[in-house]
Fold this sequence. Notes:
- This protein is of the alpha+beta class.
- The chain has one domain (19-67, 82-281).
- It is built from 4 helices and 11 strands, in the order ββαββββαββββααβ.
Amino acid sequence: MLGVAEKGHPRTGLPDYEQPPVAEVAVGVQFQPLPILAPHIGLYWSELRSSFPTVQQQPALEPVIERFGVKQTVVPSLRLMDAPETPRCFLIDKSGHRLIQLQPDRLIHNWRKVEDSGKYPHYDAMREVFLEELRRFDAFVAREKLGSVKPNQCEVTYVNNIQSSGVWEHRGQAERVFRTWTPLASGGSLPAAEDVRFSVRYLIADDKGQPLGRLHVTVQPAYLKKDGSEVFAMNLTARGAPEGEGIDGAMRFLDRAHRTIVWAFTDLTTETMHRVWGRKHGS
C-alpha cells in the first residue's frame, strides 16, 4: 500500500487534503538520557531566543519504549532521585504556532493551530526544521561535553479535531466519520449512542516484516475551545525504534511513521469526510 506512489501525492504518493482537520502535529525523538541540567537548557535557549522568545516549564515526560513479545502489566511506578528532576521546557515562537520541547532524554518539535488560525505546514516542512533542530542540539551537547544524541525511540503524533461539517448531528453517529464503527441494528433494547470513544493499536513492521513500532489511535468526544462546538478528537501516534544508527536512523523511522499515520487516517475515516476535507490524491 505504501509503495503506490503514482496514485497519491505527486511527490510522496500519499493522500493529500486541502483542508485537513489537523489541530497539532509533534515530531520527536527520545534518546539515552544526557546529564542535562536546567542551566544547560537555559544556555541552549540563548541560542534560539530570537526565534523562540517565550519559555515555559512542564513536568518531564516518562520514558516510553515499544516492546514486542513481552507480556506487559501495569504496575505503580516509583522513581527515587538523588537530585531535583530537570524539567521539560517549552520554547515557543512569537506566533505561538511552533514550539520546541526539551528535556534530558527528549527533543520534540510541535506545530499547533492557535485560535483557529494558522495553516498546517505539512510534514516535509516540519521534517526539515526538526532535522535542523536535532543536529543543532547534538552539536550543542557535544560542545558542552555532555555526550551525544543516541536515539532509542522516535515518534510522530497528529491531533485532529473533526467537526460535524453537516455530516453528523451528534457524536453518537460515529459511523458517518469512522469506517471502523458500526451502530447497533434498530429495534434492540438500547437507544442510539450518546457519544462514542475508542482506541486501537496496530503494529508497524520493517521492510522484512519484523515489528518495529506501533500506531496508537484514540477517538473521544471533545469541545472546541473557541466556541464550545462538539468535535471528535482523533489522535494518531506512531512510535518505534530508529531504523539504523544515529540521527539518520531516527529520521528513517519518522518518515515511516508519517506515512503510516497518513494512510491510517485515510483508511479509518469515511469517503464522505474525505470530500469535506478536499481529498486530492491517494487511493
